[in-house]
Design goal:
CATH topology of the largest domain in chain A: MetI-like fold
CATH class of the largest domain in chain A: Mainly Alpha
Number of domains of chain A: 4
CATH topology of the largest domain in chain B: Rossmann fold
Order of helices and strands of chain B: EEEHEEEHHHEHEHEEHHEEEEEEEEE
Helix content of chain B: 10-25%
CATH architecture of the largest domain in chain B: 3-Layer(aba) Sandwich
Number of domains of chain B: 2
Shape of chain A: elongated
Mean pLDDT of chain B: 89
Oligomer: heterodimer
Bound molecules: adenosine-5'-triphosphate, magnesium ion
Strand order of the largest sheet of chain B: 6-7-8-3-9-10
Distance between the termini of chain B: 20 Å
Number of strands of chain B: 19
CATH superfamily of the largest domain in chain B: P-loop containing nucleotide triphosphate hydrolases
Largest sheet of chain A: 2 strands, antiparallel
Low-confidence stretches of chain B: 1-6
Radius of gyration of chain B: 25 Å
Largest sheet of chain B: 6 strands, mixed
Shape of chain B: elongated
Helix content of chain A: 55-70%
CATH superfamily of the largest domain in chain A: MetI-like
Order of helices and strands of chain A: HHHHHHHHHHHHHHHEEHHHHHHHHHH
Number of helices of chain B: 8
Number of helices of chain A: 25
Number of strands of chain A: 2
Structural class of chain A: mainly alpha
Strand content of chain A: under 5%
Chain lengths: ~525, ~375
């Protein structure tokens, strides 16, 4: 025993301060429990948190534009779309150089698809341009080589750019040559000393030499000086016109505006798209009536999920009550029936609903036979919202019944008896005493069903037609068909945010400690 | 046992039977009649049908046969909520989602009582159990004893004439139980209500009740005031169930008016009064309370039969001495003597002779 009368810190048996010993013991305990959950934690980290985080990141990520067209986007920075003019020749020169690299790296089609999400037609524009871009600036190549064949010599070029003074004198040429050599080394495994540079390098050389403030070239080979003297008389090429000849869209302000607004590395464009707005040069605006789909889908998803949740409560509550109050043997049998759906494949169940609900299906046959509806006026129960609600209610019902059952099981029958002995009728005893105690089960079941249904995909896909699909079907479409992952990620993020918001609201109104999955 | 047909009866069971499964009778031929204002306790071993009887009275179980009357009216077909019977459950059954005040106000609300009247009655009921300060608490924020008081107040707040309590103090510790026993009896007498009280605990039954009904095997074995039950058990089950008791077995040798002579299995002869033995030669169990056994010859009648006994164990218990003897070949014969200045302290191994007044020794059924 330690002597607590001493004024110093309380010591453990080995003479160390008791607090330190206690902390060490607790730390060891904590470490041990950490080790126990570590495999799961790591598993979840690698298979869930990181991929989902990355996926969500895609909703704002937009590096592809500035990656593929680095100089173009830079040059385009100061362009003002409101003038209604296509960008300057310098921008087109930059586009030529960027496209040349992109085509060699086969990145231009990816960028085309990306920008096509924003303005249709850009994809084919890029593909078309990609096939012709290597001709751009050929006039300059021809004129330089005509002036002096040395300009054709790859070794001369390689030596020229290696000179220490070249960087200051011929900056654009050096940059163009660098992309040329990097690209051919990485893409084709070629040696720059054996390949004549691209036309873009000559184009850059022309730009450098004809620049008003041409630098001092005395330290460079004599050919450069000669060329500088000659460029004044060179035939020039209007690149803007040349591009427009490939496709007139290159003169379209809309295309350039799209490239311009999507130049930054991060964009809110996907999110704006997700709520039916589009990005413009200065802010955003609503899309046309015809193109607005996502807000409607979000609202529909929420309303239908709530309808499904409410149907599940209405259908599941009595069943759960029976389960909790019937004698053991009967209750077990009923429980098996409740769990039965879990043992059949989701697809089989959903397809079964297709058979049941279609116009010539079993249910329609029965109501027609009963004379409730006319034969030529059969109910449309499938390929619409009704179909989705019916099938989803059936599929999600066990998720409502199970938490309800486990909560009801813990409500002792004496409460209802007590209420009755105090003078309450059956209904009052149920409503005032039994029901409030089953509310945590309703809460848990509702959260489960609502969250499951808000992200449900297969069933709406099969039985929902066009009017009964959810936002998740749209997300799946963007993930697997249109490959617009950014938009899919943005839609997914919004869905996640909505669920969290609702969860928060639920916590506020009902209180999350009022949710019980049992016991 | 045969109190049927009593005219002033408030609660009456007449030939009531109950079976849950259609094979076994849980309650067999129950006949009981209680006047208004009586505090009656049902006492009996587990599974003897006490709760079942209470539930039939409250209306949660239906009698398979027979009639239950309340104030002269058959209530067999009246649903529980119309019977107006207050009930206290073993686990209290306070509604966990309501405060104490709301719990108490519930029976008044369902009776469509006005708000001010309700509040007044709730406060008065809380006052009866000294729990006014707890009106705003939830049941889970109360101790077991406090919950019990609230449950009691709730059963009383709508002023029922009959209150049923099923082992209401079963989950409490001894001291609290004693306090509450006292409070419950006091309240019951003050309010003049009729109480049917179920318990396992015989001390509770004896101290609280006007009459005790001892249940066994679905029947009332004896229905009597506590002193009569203790001193004059009608059969050997009651004798053994209530209090401590010494039992000797033998055969009736002779019956003379209100005394008889019994020959024990080892041949010894003792005096007893015949309670339910009628003929010579019948087997019988003789019961003697430990505190009625004398070993001081001077205090016995001169012609009393005595038995030889050997002291096996002497236990000093403060107010009393408890001595275990070997009598008539049995090792569990117990005598109790008061710790008085002149009392002899027996020592193990000592040979003594014991005897008793014939009226303390009852020859019962075998
Ligand atoms: N709902 C029921 N269904 C079938 N049998 C039951 C039911 N309730 C009680 N029984 C049986 O009836 C018999 C009497 O039960 P009861 O609850 O009345 O006993 P009790 O005297 O209250 O016992 P305890 O002192 O243990 O509470 C028991 O054998 C019990 O198994
Ligand atoms: Mg019981």
């Amino acid at each position: 025993m330690t002597d607590t009368l001493d004024s110093g810190p309380v010591l453990a048996a080995d003479g160390r301060p008791l607090k330190a010993s206690l902390n060490r013991a607790l730390r060891r305990q904590k470490m041990r429990s950490m080790m126990l959950i570590a495999p799961l934690l790591i598993f979840i980290m690698f298979t869930f948190v990181i991929p989902i985080g990355q996926m969500l990141f895609r909703s704002v990520e937009n590096q592809i534009v500035s990656d593929v067209l680095p100089t173009t986007t830079q040059m385009l920075h100061d362009w003002d779309a409101s003038t209604g003019e296509r960008p300057s020749e310098d921008v087109f020169a930059a586009l030529t150089k960027d496209m040349m690299v992109a085509v060699e790296k086969k990145e231009h089609t990816r960028l085309g698809s990306r920008l096509n999400y924003e303005t249709t037609g850009i994809s084919s524009l890029f593909r078309k341009t990609g096939r012709r871009v290597d001709d751009m600036g050929e006039v300059y190549t021809e004129q330089f080589t005509a002036l002096d064949p040395t300009w054709e010599n790859p070794v001369f070029w390689a030596d020229l750019v290696a000179l220490p003074d070249a960087a200051a004198a011929l900056p654009q040429t050096l940059a163009a040559y660098a992309s040329f050599s990097d690209t051919i080394i990485s893409e084709d495994g070629d040696d720059p000393r054996e390949e004549q540079p691209w036309n873009t390098v000559y184009l850059s050389l022309y730009q450098d030499l004809s620049a008003a403030s041409a630098a001092d070239l005395s330290a460079l080979p004599a050919e450069v000086g000669v060329a500088q003297a000659a460029v004044g008389g060179f035939e020039t090429q209007n690149l803007g016109d040349a591009f427009t000849k490939i496709d007139k869209d290159w003169s379209s302000v809309e295309v350039w505006e799209t490239i311009h607004t999507y130049s930054p590395d991060f964009t809110n464009g996907y999110f704006l798209n997700s709520i039916d707005r589009q990005k413009t040069a200065d802010g955003s605006e609503w899309r046309g009536e015809q193109q607005q789909i996502y807000l409607t889908l979000f609202v529909r998803t929420l309303i239908m999920s709530m309808t499904i949740t409410i149907s599940c409560i209405l259908l599941g509550y009595p069943v759960a009550w029976l389960l909790a109050n019937l004698p053991m043997r009967t209750a077990n049998l009923l429980m098996i029936l409740v769990l039965l759906p879990f043992w059949t494949s989701l697809l089989v169940r959903t397809s079964a609903w297709k058979v049941l609900l279609q116009q010539q299906g079993v249910i329609n046959d029965i109501v027609v036979w009963l004379g409730l509806v006319a034969d030529d006026n059969r109910l449309a129960l499938i390929n619409n919202a009704t179909g989705t609600i019916i099938a989803m209610t059936h599929i999600l019902l066990p998720f409502m019944i199970l938490p309800l059952y486990s909560v009801m099981k813990t409500v002792p029958p004496t409460y209802v008896r007590a209420a009755k002995s105090l003078g309450a009728t059956n209904w009052t005893a149920f409503w005032r005493v039994y029901f409030p105690q089953s509310v945590p089960g309703i809460g848990a079941g509702s959260i489960l069903v609502f969250i499951l249904s808000i992200g449900y995909y297969i069933t709406p896909e099969i039985v929902g037609g066009t009017k009964g699909v959810f936002i998740s079907n749209r997300i799946a479409y963007h993930i697997s068909s249109s490959l617009n992952w950014g938009l899919a990620a943005a839609l997914g993020s919004i869905l996640l945010a909505v669920v969290m918001l609702l969860y928060w609201a639920y916590d506020r109104i009902v209180g999350i400690d009022n949710v019980k999955l049992g016991g | 046992m045969s109190n049927t047909g009593n005219d002033g009866a408030f609660v009456e069971f007449e030939r009531v039977q109950k079976s849950y499964d259609g094979e076994n009778l849980v309650v067999k031929d129950l006949n009981l009649s209680m006047p208004k204002g009586e505090f009656l306790t049902m006492l009996g071993p587990s599974g003897s049908g006490k709760t079942t009887c209470l539930m039939m009275l409250a209306g949660f179980e239906t009698a398979t046969h027979g009639e239950i009357r309340l104030d002269g009216v058959s209530i067999n077909h009246i649903p529980p909520h119309k019977r107006g019977i207050g009930m206290v459950f073993q686990n209290y059954a306070l509604f966990p989602h309501m405060t104490v005040a709301e719990n108490l106000s519930f029976p008044l609300e369902v009776r469509k009582m006005g708000k001010s009247e309700r509040e007044e009655k709730v406060m008065r009921a809380l006052g009866m159990v000294q729990m006014q300060d707890f009106a705003g608490r939830r049941p889970t924020q109360l101790s077991g004893g406090q919950q019990q008081r609230i449950a009691l107040a709730r059963a009383l707040v709508f002023e029922p004439e009959l209150v049923l309590m099923d082992e209401p103090l079963g989950a409490l510790d001894k001291q609290l139980r004693e306090t509450l026993q006292f409070e419950i009896t006091n309240l019951a007498h003050q309010l003049g209500i009729t109480v049917v009280y179920v318990t396992h605990d015989q001390t509770e039954a004896l101290t609280m009740s006007d009459r005790v009904a001892v249940f066994d095997d679905g029947r009332i074995q004896q229905l009597a005031p506590p002193d009569e039950l203790y001193e004059a058990p009608q059969n050997s089950f009651v004798a053994q169930f209530i209090g401590e008791n010494n039992t000797l077995e033998g055969v009736v040798k002779e019956i003379k008016g209100n005394t008889c002579i019994v020959q024990l299995d080892n041949g010894d002869i003792i005096d007893a009064i015949p309670v339910n033995v009628t003929a010579v030669g019948e087997r019988t169990k003789v019961s003697i309370r430990p505190e009625r056994v004398e070993f001081d010859k001077g205090r016995l009648q001169a012609d009393a039969h005595t038995l030889k006994a050997e002291v096996l164990e002497f236990i000093y218990m403060g107010d009393i001495f408890r001595t275990r003897l070997r009598v008539a070949g049995m090792d569990d014969f117990v005598i109790k003597s008061r710790n008085a200045p002149d009392q002899t302290r027996l020592v193990p191994g000592q040979q003594i002779e014991i005897g008793w007044l014939p009226e303390d020794c009852r020859a019962l059924d075998a």
